[in-house]
Design brief:
Helices cover 63% and strands 0% of the residues. The chain is mostly helical. Helix 1 runs antiparallel to helix 2 and helix 2 packs antiparallel against helix 3. The longest helix is centred in the middle third of the chain and has 27 residues. It is elongated, with a radius of gyration of 23 Å. Keywords: Membrane, Transmembrane, Transmembrane helix. This is TSN36 protein. It comes from Chloropsis hardwickii.
C-alpha cells in the first residue's frame, strides 16, 4: 500500500507540470505531498505491525491498533473536508481557467497549455465551446472560430468555426 501511494503521489506531482498554468495556487500540490508522507508513515507502521506480530508482543500490537485507529479517523476527516470544500475548489479552478483562456493568443505559453489541456481531456472551453465567444482571441481572429485543439480527432477538415459544432 505504501508503494502504491508513493507512486500516486509522484504521478500527481509529475502531471502537475503540464497543468501548472491552470493551478496558480502552489498549494495545489499539497495533497500529493501529503500522500507521499502518508506512504512513508504507512511503511513505518507496517514495519511496527510486522515486528510486533513476529515477536508476539501485546504492547506492540496495541500500539499498532491505536495507530491504525488514528489513521482511520484522519481519513474520515479528510473525506469530510473534501466533500465540504469541493464547490470552493471547483469555483477557484474555473476562475483560474477563465483567466488563462483570456490570455490565449495561439502563441504564448498559456496557449500551449490550453491546447494541450483541450486535446488531452477532449474538451473545448471551461464548460463548453461557447466559453470562447467571450475571449479576446475569438473576436480578434476575424473568423470567429475556436482553436484547432477544440476539434474532435475523428472530425475531418475541422476549422473550428461555430457553424459546425458537431466537429467540436
Amino acid at each position: 500500500a505504501a508503494a502504491g501511494l508513493s507512486y500516486v503521489g509522484a504521478y500527481v506531482i509529475n502531471t502537475y507540470k503540464s497543468y501548472d498554468n491552470f493551478l496558480q495556487d502552489k498549494y495545489a500540490l499539497l495533497p500529493a505531498v501529503i500522500i507521499i508522507c502518508v506512504a512513508v508513515v504507512m511503511f513505518v507502521i507496517g514495519l511496527i505491525g510486522c515486528c510486533a506480530t513476529f515477536r508476539e508482543s501485546r504492547v506492540g500490537l496495541g500500539l499498532f491498533l491505536a495507530i491504525i485507529l488514528v489513521i482511520f479517523i484522519a481519513e474520515v476527516s479528510a473525506f469530510v473536508l473534501g466533500f465540504v470544500y469541493r464547490e470552493k475548489v471547483k469555483t477557484d479552478v474555473q476562475g483560474t481557467m477563465r483567466s488563462v483562456f483570456e490570455k490565449y493568443d495561439g502563441k504564448n505559453a498559456e496557449s500551449t497549455v490550453v491546447d494541450y489541456l483541450q486535446e488531452q481531456l477532449h474538451c473545448c472551453g471551461v464548460k463548453n465551446y461557447s466559453d470562447w465567444t467571450t475571449t479576446q482571441w475569438f473576436n480578434s481572429t476575424g473568423n470567429h472560430s475556436v482553436p484547432q485543439s477544440c476539434c474532435q480527432q475523428e472530425a475531418k477538415n475541422c476549422t473550428g468555426h461555430l457553424d459546425r459544432p458537431q466537429d467540436l
